[in-house]
Amino acid sequence: MPIGLKSASGPPGIQSTQDPLASGRMTTATTSRRSIPVCTPVMDGREREYVDACMRGNWIASGEFIERFEKQIATVCGVPYSVACCNGTAAIHLALESLGVGEGDEVIIPAFTLIASANMVCLTGATPVLVDVTPDTWCIDPALIESRISPRTKAIMVVHMYGHPCDMNSIMAIAKRHKLTVIEDAAQAHGARYHGQTVGGIGDVSCFSFYANKIITTGEGGMVLTRHKEIAERAALLRNQAFGPTRFVHDFVGFNYRMTNIQAAIGVAQCERLQQKNRRKREIATIYDKLLDGEERIQRHASAPGCEPVCWMYGVVLDESFGRDKEEVRAMLAADGIETRSFFIPMNEQPVYQGRDSQCPDLRGSYPVSERLGSRGFYLPTGLDLTREDQEWIAERLLACAK
Predict the structure, then answer these.
(1) CB under 8 Å, gap of 24 or more: what pairs does 5-8 form?
(2) Strand (E) positions, 54-189?
(3) Does the residue 379 lie in any domain?
């Protein structure tokens, strides 16, 4: 099912009766079994009001909502500088370019991540260097990082996987010892906290995505955050074609990575409801935990001590003892109207990075944890409008798939 705006009247067979973010309450009255999407955006704040303001004032490209949105996200993360852009991938590219990453450099990234991590490193002319992830948090394993550092290493890019924070204390200590910069990919972790600090405000620079399935969405959108004024200024310059003081005179190669005022207006309204959205996400994860409690054939995402994840998606990994492979189980759930999404395919298994293209590095190697997650992991529906009845049905059908 494509991701789109949630209908005001709800899906077929559903009559909405409650606030979709209401704590633990039934949000629908089911007259017939409905299809359950993996995630749908919920526009339950002042989105329409703010977009209408853009339309009335005819400020649809640039405008005040962009700066308001930048300040909101910066405040959440506790940093002074933020630069909105058109999507999360662009945010990664801007972060790398603003740090001066380029030809001949290496950037350490997790083997288990979205391909944008590797692609954007390559776009700068640098080379991604893979590190496996931990079997419990599914985030980059700090114990393996130092063995991958070389004289060419410029930065460490971490990914707060599915809303669960990385071990940032260990990673920042490694970076300090080796004089490296740290990039946080917080695309899936809006509002997650690590030992009291909001992720996205710990490393040297961070990147966010506001795609339609994210906790805060603008449809498409991204942002770069940093404590360093010079990095923010560089990102803002590159975002807008690197226009200099004299119009149409350019000293650098820049990009058209701007966010529109209409997108930012939606983001402002979404951000006003961030605490409620994250509270609801945690409730959904807690319900799944209880429904699957004691099922040793299904591994679930674990949080490291001191972490407050936002549970962007609820992932499961099927043990071999489950008796069926991932795709067979996903097909069975789909037949019951339950949509799922496969985990990322590790970078070392991506065809484009297996020596087939002379312009792309060969990233083949052994990354057993990432490979197991990619082959046996997927996530269950985690939309904010999910009901307790929905979750009970999903858990029942998932357990019924076991041999």
Answers:
(1) 5/41, 5/43, 6/40, 6/41, 6/42, 6/43, 6/385
(2) 81-85, 106-110, 127-131, 153-159, 181-185
(3) yes
Q: Are residues 192 and 298 in the same domain?
A: no
Distance of alpha carbon 191 from alpha carbon 73, whole angstroms: 9
Q: pTM value?
A: 0.91
Quote the distance between the C-alpha of residue 188 and its chain's center.
Answer: 2
Contacts of 192 (CB under 8 A, 6+ apart): 160, 163, 164, 165, 186, 198, 199, 307, 308, 309, 310
Nearest C-alpha neighbor of 200 from the set 313, 70, 373, 39: 70
pLDDT digits (tens, 9 = 90+) for 311-364: 999 999 999 999 999 999 999 999 999 999 999 999 999 999 998 877 899 999
**Average pLDDT for the chain:** 92
Residue 63: inside a domain: yes
Burial (CB count <10 Å: 0-12, 13-18, 19+), residue 64: middle
Q: Number of folded domains in the chain?
A: 2
Among 162, 272, 268, residue whose Cα is nearest residue 221: 268
**Residue 337: Cβ within 10 Å count:** 15
Q: What CA–CA distance (Å, rounded) separates 107 from 311?
A: 27
* One domain for residues 372 and 384: yes
Q: What is the DSSP string of 35-87?
A: PB-S------SSHHHHHHHHHHHT-SSSSHHHHHHHHHHHHHHT-SEEEEES-
Q: What residue numbers bound the domain in which 357 lies? A: 273-400
Query: How would DSSP label each residue in 286-304?
Result: HHHHHHTTT-TTEEE--PP
pLDDT for 85 equals: 98
Which run of H or E residues covers position 222?
strand 222-226
171's enclosing H/E stretch is helix 168-178
Strand order in the sheet with 197-198: 197-198, 193-194, 307-308
CATH code (residue 302): 3.90.1150.10
CA distance 149 to 225: 25
- Given a cut of 50, is residue 10 above it in pLDDT? no
Domain check: are 251 and 310 in the same one? no
Say whether both 303 and 355 belong to one domain: yes
Amino acid at 340: T
